[in-house]
TrEMBL record:
Pfam families with a match to the protein in the record: tRNA-synt_1b (PF00579)
Name of the protein described by the UniProt record: Tryptophan--tRNA ligase, mitochondrial
Reactions catalysed: tRNA(Trp) + L-tryptophan + ATP = L-tryptophyl-tRNA(Trp) + AMP + diphosphate + H(+)
EC annotation from Swiss-Prot or TrEMBL: 6.1.1.2
InterPro entries recorded: aa-tRNA-synth_I_CS, aa-tRNA-synth_Ic, Rossmann-like_a/b/a_fold, Trp-tRNA-ligase, Trp-tRNA-ligase_bac-type, Trp-tRNA_synthetase
Organism superkingdom: Eukaryota
Keyword presence, Magnesium: no
Family statement drawn from the similarity comment of this UniProt entry: Belongs to the class-I aminoacyl-tRNA synthetase family.
Class of this enzyme: ligase
Naturally occurring in which organism (per UniProt): Byssothecium circinans
Amino acid sequence: MLSSTTSRALRRATSHSLSKSRTPYVCLSCQQKRHVSSNEPRRTIFSGIQPTGIPHLGNYLGALKPWVKLQNDAQPRDKLIFSIVDLHAITVKQDRLQLMQWRREMFASFLAVGLDPKRSVLFAQSDVSAHSEMMWILSCFASMGYLSRMTQWKSKAALPPDTPTTCFDPSPFQRLKKDAPAPKLGLFSYPVLQAADILLYNTTHVPVGEDQAQHLEFTRDLAQTFNAAYKSDILTLPETILSPARRVMSLTEPTKKMSKSDPKIESRILITDTRETIHQKIKTALTDSIPGVHYDPELRPGVSNLIDILYHLNEAKYASPEHLSRELAGADTSLKALKEMVADALDKELEPVRERMGEAMNMKGEEMLKHLDNGLKVAGTISQRQIHKMKKEMGMWWGGEGERMKRGRDGG
């Protein structure tokens, strides 16, 4: 089985940081130490990733690899749910055939990195219609003012983060370039869909990066608003597992995050890149002309990015990027030698992943659906149960025989 060949490297411990945000951040390693008794409440962990092509190194280190660790370290009673969130992907126009291919590639990536369909619930968001229904219900409780203050939709709409948008105020959008596409409702309201994704499964913990902290706070606020409206505790307020800040930067512009939207293919490492491709991309990665190697993201972003990558691939060996940097400097490591070390480490890490990726992509559609079938059934069952509970609380159901008789006696 593909899932049984998970690389040992994926089982290394990762460090977890805490935040001062009012969202309750959780140290994952502490959670695991605490969660040893079968009497502990079961955790439900949910996370999702958009299908936008072959994952790059930033996707792998920041999301996929930590998910595998969560899966492998979870207790038997824990439920892990990982989704291909393709409804989020259509906030911009997508080519039909391209999106189909991207969905396939993303599920193959799940299998390639070591996510196990028998242990984790794996499915595509659009295959579970309850996500859309839940979004509509929650949108009736979502504050327009709160949504307008969200920073990520402003960046995607090409608006400055400090743009003072108010409800139904079109002026910020009128300042966009004439050839820029008009922002769509889906882009503005996608945090509601994100909240629906989480609350639909009674999620207790969500692994996210710091840039998603605002969305988790919005999700908790929305859950509290719904629960208060119906004096219930139907919606679980999720806690956050804050992933370590694994910000992998572009190889060609190291002041920017690595991105699949960058027109320069040499700016990123894909999990399917061959050894030769990896070495070529790292060899041409932008650094500087300063002799020696030391960690300074401000003054030496390119060199620091390479040190970060090497550190993330060896977190069990080094306490921090600075620790690794001191060892490299002590060994009088040259930039050329550093690049060779990074390329070799990347190839060693990704070799088993790209081999399994090739196997998964060679699956026929029917075989891939078999792997998805169990996850789809589990996700469908849980989500429909949650929707039913909410609609019943809201009065959107016909009631049982006993309730109809009671209404009759009361004259209802």
